[in-house]
Amino acid sequence: MNAQVSPAARRDVLRLPLLGRALKWRWGRLLLQVPLLALALLLVYDGFTGSALAAQNLATVLPWVHYRGVIVLALLLAGNLFCMGCPFTLPRTLAKRLSSRGPRFPRLLRNKWLALANLLLLFFVYEWLDLWASPLLTAWLIVTYFVAAFALEALFSESPFCKYVCPLGTFNFVYSALSPLQITTRSHDVCRTCVGKECLNGSYSAAPLIVIDQIGGDGQPTATHTNGPRGTLGCGTQLFVPQIKSNMDCIFCLDCVRACPHDNVALAGRAPGAELTRADALPKRWDMTLLLVALAFLGVVNAFGMVPPVYDLLQSIGQPLVALGWNAAAAEALGLLLVLLGGGVALPALLTLAAASLSRALGQNALALRETAAAFAPAFVPVGLGIWAAHYSFHFLVGFWTVIPVFQKFLADHGATITPDWSWGGVTDMALVGLVQGAALLAGFAASGYLAQRTAMRLYRRRAPLAMLPWLALILLLALAALWIFSLPMEMRGNVLFG
Amino acid sequence: MDKLLRTLILLFVLVMAACRQPEATPTPSVNLTLDIAYEPAPPVVGAVTLVVTVLDAAGTAVDGATVAVRGDMAHAGMTSMDGQTDESENGVYRIPFEWTMGGDWILTVTVTLPDGTSVVQAFNATIGS
After folding, report:
1. N-term to C-term CA, chain A
2. What is the mean pLDDT of residues A22-36?
3. pLDDT tens digit sequence for A105-150
4. Nearest-CA neighbor of A75 among A493, A331, A322, A389?
5. Which of A8, A91, A161, A301 is a Cys-bridge partner for A268, taking CB atoms 3.0 to 4.6 Å apart?
6. Residue A402 is nearest to which of B20, B79, B129, comparing CB atoms?
7. Pick the residue with more confidence: A98 or A459?
8. Where a domain ends, among A240, A256, A277?
9. Mean pLDDT score of chain B, rounded to an integer?
């Protein structure tokens, strides 16, 4: 077949000598998943049986200090590597084999509303139950993930857990927009004549596969393909490779690569954030728009949860309720809910609507409100990641080496003759940490401003300078709010209200 | 869902039900009352003196013990702080310490008596920034 290879596919990671083969190998994903599964089981074990002190337990140190820092780095340097190695999806195959092929996920839930709600739920539980201070509850959270992934895979035919439910995956989907890698076709021509669409459907053929478009003039196949006796899974999140325009919903499992009988799927290099400049990369739906904008706002709200003003705010909400006879925990829950829903949903929704309305008026463009908001929403991705990166880099840098004594303690608790060296810490130069945080914020702000300007130019031409002002103001507001929060002394309190 | 799936779920539930964190370090039979105070108070980030008072069951001051304090932040990933002294006056042990960050701290105080027996007690402290 002499189909022309697209320029993007010429930077195909899968063509690299060793790495490419390992990634395309039938069990290639397991190379990442098995170590991460072992790690997850270790965390659950230590969470249930180890020290109740968060600073001395792997279940709290690794997820809340290291995982979050590594995930941002991985997204920026490569792609959605956590979803690729996600141990929670290991039950997928098991569930698929144990259950009969069930129905698709309910149509009503096939959007990002549930994912957004789960993100809020995770943030709420994280703050309310002080997950960062509780190895036991963190272990239960990991268990809950395994159970939820298994149950949803067993009940439904696709992979609804990854696409519609998982808050971690949702975070990764949004910010993998800035990743330098993306699944694409090597040649669109090949897909045009493909009959089986194995990248989507999978192949369960035990016999060598003969592809219709690879039958020669003599009626004999020019090539045959073997998928193994148990076949190959197609895309679990129902993405069809020739139509993929972004990293949204792509878990980097590479099942499409393995399933394609034409070897026509590439994991191609691209400019980071390339999809954010494309008008057609993401669906123009309210759920998607709000997700992109709200996640940036939630970055601010999440960081706000660790500085002194939030404690005053929670006190002012909670104390009158307690005076009215409310239970302290319930009062704190309500306070946190108000902060989360107000700052993470209501505020971004209202400000997005306001900015879109203003933008339409200033730009004198007939584009609908929904489409205007959807066009500018991707501009919030860089500033959002900048805010998250600034927050996570603090914990990551300050606690970088703390995993060493914690692991030493784990070994000592299990019979090893080793004394934990608790002097291991991390970066102690707060000026350096502040510099990293500032750089992340500035880079995010600059990239978001650029995207807003580009979108305005595309939509409004000569009136772009005016029409982009509301969006630039909103992005600036976010960046300044984050800067203010990070300039405050960070406090790590648990039950902030009532001890 | 077949029998194997139900068995797996049942096994999982049983295993999870069997898991629990260990009890706190058992305190030996020696009966001491520990109390802790901070100078300056209320505690804020920076240098501090931990004032640990050790009394026996009769309320008599206990001197001659070694008092060690380990401070961990409630949040994972922060370096712990340590302090120790064996000097006391009327059962009051003063230990130089440093709060490196505001927030919730857990202080684990270990009092070791001259005969080698020890008492461990944890205290919570919220430090202002």
Report:
1. 70
2. 91
3. 899 999 999 999 999 999 999 999 999 999 999 999 999 999 998 8
4. A389
5. A8
6. B79
7. A459
8. A277
9. 84
Residue A225: strand pairing partners: A209
Q: Are residues A361 and A457 in the same domain?
A: yes
B44-98 pLDDT per residue, tens? 999 999 999 999 989 999 999 999 999 999 988 888 999 999 999 999 999 999 9
pLDDT of B101 above 70: yes
Which of B81, B88, B127 is closest to B111 using CA atoms?
B88
Is A452 within 8 Å of A379 (Cβ atoms)? yes
B77 interaction partners in chain A (CB closer than 8 Å): 55, 61, 64-66, 395, 398-399, 402, 426
For residue range A293-309, list pLDDT tens digits in order. 999 999 999 999 888 89
Measure the CA–CA gap between A141 and B10, rounded to whole angstroms: 19
Nearest residue in B to A426, CA atom: B79
In this structure, the answer to whether residues A249 and A296 fall within a common structural domain is no
Please state, for a pLDDT cut of 70, what percent of chain A lies above it.
91
Q: Quick one: average pLDDT of A394-419?
A: 95
Does A381 map to a domain? yes
| Over residues A192-210, mean pLDDT | 74
User: What are the helix (H) ranges across A176-307?
Assistant: 188-192, 198-201, 255-259, 286-304
Q: How many CB atoms lie under 10 A from the CB of residue A436?
A: 16
On whether any CB of chain A is under 8 Å from the CB of B47, the answer is no
Distances A201 to A24, A52, A99, A482 between C-alpha atoms, Å: 18, 46, 18, 44
Do A12 and A6 contact (CB within 8 A), yes or no? no
ipTM computed for the complex: 0.78
Task: State the CB neighbour count (10 A cutoff) for residue B105.
Answer: 25
Residue A108 is predicted with a pLDDT of 93
The full set of domains in chain B, from first to last, is 31-127 (2.60.40.1940)
Chain A nearest C-alpha distance from B92 (Å): 27
| Of the candidates A180, A158, A192, the residue with the CA atom closest to the CA atom of residue A89 | A158
Backbone angles phi, psi at A263, to 5 degrees: 50, 45
CA dist B120 to B66, B79, B127, Å?
A: 12, 21, 22
A80 within 8 A of A252, measured Cβ to Cβ = yes
d(CA A199, CA A190): 12
Asked whether the predicted pLDDT for residue A494 surpasses 70, the reply is: no
Q: Could you tell me if residue A168 is inside a domain?
A: no
Closest CA in chain B for residue A155: B1
